[in-house]
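[09:14] KT: can someone run the structure on this one? pasting the chain below
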Amino acid sequence: MNHFEIDWLDFLQRLPLWERLSLEARRAFAELETNQETPTARFHGQESILLEAGLIRCSQGRKRVSLERAGHRLARGIHAMLRRDIPADPSGDDLEGYLHDHFRHDELLALLSHDAFPSRAETARAVASIGWVQRFLARKAESPRPRFSQSHLPSWLSTATLPRESAEPSVALPAAQAIVRELMALPGPLPLAKLCERLPEVTLSVLADGLLLGIRDAVLFPTMRPADMVPLIGLWPAITRWLHRPKARPPQPVEARDNFHGPFLMEDMTTLLVAAAAAPLRLRVNDGGLYAKSLREMADSLMPLPDWFHQFAERSPEYRLEDASRWLQALALARRKRSYREHPRLEATPRGQRWLAQSPKDRLKFLLDYLRDGPDALRRLGEHDARDLHRFTHDATGLIEFLPVRIPTFGKSPGGGPDLRPAVTAAYAGLPEGEFAPLGDFLRWHVEQNNPLIGTDGGETRPRVHLDWSHRMTNQEDLEEFWQQCLASFLLHRLIPLGGVEFGIAGNENRWCIALTGPGRYLLGLAGDFDYGHDPAGQKLVVVQPNFDVVFLGPSPLAEAAIGRFAERRSRGHGALFAITKKSILAAAGSGLTAEQALETLRSASDKPIPANVEREITGWFDQCRRITIRTATLITCPDAETAARVVAAGGNQAVALTDTVVELADAQAKTALSRKLREVGVFLDEPAPGGRPPRTVGRRRTRR
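[09:31] RB: done, structure tokens below
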């Protein structure tokens, strides 16, 4: 039983009779089945109305009633409408169930003629989009339905009859389009009895043909309201909600009652690289991640984030450090090194050592320039080995790019679809400088009013996208969702972690709000430089005490991150405490920090001068530090000074006399060439006698019997 089998002309003609019945009588009639009887008392005295219309017959002295042949057609329509309460449960699964109830396989094939064998889920996704209705309204004439010969259908899809043609195309299409336009203006489904009143120029027979065509093409959905058993006709509820959603307005400035900003990603990378520079960090063999012990040891050194920020995006210390590890490796600031029979380790590269020695602003500028330059920056990283890249959880490719996501188009150019960078830049460049804007209003406005993807939708030129190991056609709702994900992902994975925006909460409703900062304007190409590390309010909340304690009188994440490089954290939150120790100073010196940089950090964060004893000890501890180089050398031992002189002469600039009888060969690979030259002058090379334990023999281990 489905909507195609309903005689809609007869159903419309019976509606006035249905309106006369009470709710109890309607429910009693709806429960009648073929060849079954029900007590007359259930109709509460209104069975006479149905008897006069010839829809039921009485038996057993009018104590029981059953359906007449004429009543079967009305009952069939009532039963079909009661199968699903569409307005109450308009989910995607419910639409798939509706298609399963009312459409055969061949009728589903006729709906999506561009796909040979579409799935029910793909059909439901297409039917629930506004583009489906728009294409139906744009149709000029009713095209013949595709007819699938039995010989062209697989055996499991064969049907007894071909798709049915019940509506007259010449009159049905204009009537169906008129019904759809009428329903588009309403916020919900319309009672069928009122449809004739709203379309008085359409005759009842033409209206019935229009209903059948609209239902057959899945733009009209008949249902029954269970509360009062009123037959309804409407669009799919998701389409109605889309049509009547509140119109987006440009975001208006708001006052943030609490806010946060700081390039915590850059500071996390610094913390991790400092630890890797001091001693390479062990990595897991299976996935290359950091061990839990290393993560716990570094967690206390991370820049603190407000508790309310985790309601927007959960950023655990483990996630932040793993993310920092991926960035360090992708930018060739750190690399994985693995030797035989040893765990892989994360170690700092020479580029990473130089990056650590830079000021915080220069370190941040390096990351922003990397994103701004794109492929040019990748080519400049000569130490970068693409085979060691990890695939990011939030990046579409293994490389770090300006945009963290891409639209996975199918069958397009190698560029991967439209270039959204200019549109993203323009969207965030429109934020008022120095003022907070509600994030929800910002996203909604650009999704609905400034969506660069909407123009690609329509007809056969709509792009296909890869989703869930398959590809499908996009609709307007998909394009709005993709664009919102692109804007939100750029905010979450680029602007916020790199200090490009101030992120805050406004009002009593805890609305998220954002304001563009100097680093954000620099990343978007709106400014040639930016300030870093300066408190906009001009407050200096740090006190350096003579006992080497550093006390924070208020929250200052940037100052905490900077001082944390050369001091040990003792507490968090209000009144955060650091202690400057010789151990922490030596560790900072090992990562490339200088005494002047450490003292300048303290001076910029405190109103009071640094105690003389603290400044003297910091300078002294840094002055104790020295750097040495360990290398492997090849030594040549000679019997006398005259032989050593002949070796030095043969070796040229590769041989250096260390003593009268010992010569160092700078390049071990030059040993063969030097031996050949020495043989020509009568100096021969003796291999040294093996010392220590003999080399281990590789073979099968003997089994004890």
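[09:33] KT: thanks! The mean pLDDT is 80.
[09:34] RB: yep, looked fine to me
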